[in-house]
């Protein structure tokens, strides 16, 4: 699952090249996310974003929207073509659950995310509206790096 393992630092690649073979990558990984991802895959558990639906709002610079879409799809996320409406009957009756959310957290019931570029001009009026939450694209990358659904960060007021 190449999109869900942190990239190896050059030092890890250098060791492989010097020895002419594979080396244990765990000593070159940042954090515990890659190990969690391997255990998850080996245990045949759902992918990181299984049970989650995503709408990417606006344009994205770094990473580009196409890369974010690929990461979400590889991680089991479903892509929405329309912005979800929090007050919609369809949204409120959706019974999906986010498998990798902390059990008992309110995030376990949130299955629809509006993702925005934190470097862009859009700021959501509220982060949480029923089962629809807004999150910056950096949150997605942090979730992937740690291989867990992290709490959505509080908004920083616009300057």
UniProtKB/TrEMBL annotation:
Superkingdom of the organism of origin = Eukaryota
Where in this chain does the record put each BRCT domain? 44-157
Name the SMART domains on file: BRCT
- GO terms for molecular function, please? ubiquitin-protein transferase activity
Pfam families named among the record's database cross-references:
BRCT_2
Print the keywords alphabetically.
Answer: ANK repeat, Repeat
This entry carries the following GO cellular component terms, namely: BRCA1-A complex; BRCA1-BARD1 complex
Q: What is one process in the GO biological process aspect for this record?
A: protein K6-linked ubiquitination
What is the recorded name of this protein? BRCT domain-containing protein
What organism is this sequence from? Denticeps clupeoides (denticle herring)
Identify the taxonomic lineage of the organism of origin: Eukaryota, Metazoa, Chordata, Craniata, Vertebrata
């Amino acid at each position: 699952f190449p999109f869900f393992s942190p990239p190896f630092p050059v030092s890890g690649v250098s060791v492989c090249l010097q020895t002419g073979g594979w080396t244990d990558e765990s000593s070159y990984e940042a954090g515990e996310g890659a190990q969690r991802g391997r255990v998850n895959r080996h245990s045949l558990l759902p992918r990181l974003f299984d049970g989650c639906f995503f709408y990417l709002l606006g344009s994205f610079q770094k990473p580009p929207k196409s890369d974010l879409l690929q990461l979400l799809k590889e991680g089991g996320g479903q892509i929405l073509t329309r912005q979800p409406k929090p007050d919609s009957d369809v949204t409120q009756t959706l019974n999906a659950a986010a498998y990798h959310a902390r059990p008992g957290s309110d995030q376990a019931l949130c299955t629809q995310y509006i993702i925005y570029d934190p470097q862009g001009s859009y700021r959501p009026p509220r982060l949480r509206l029923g089962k629809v939450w807004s999150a910056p694209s950096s949150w997605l990358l942090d979730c992937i790096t740690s291989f867990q659904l992290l709490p959505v960060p509080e908004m920083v007021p616009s300057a």
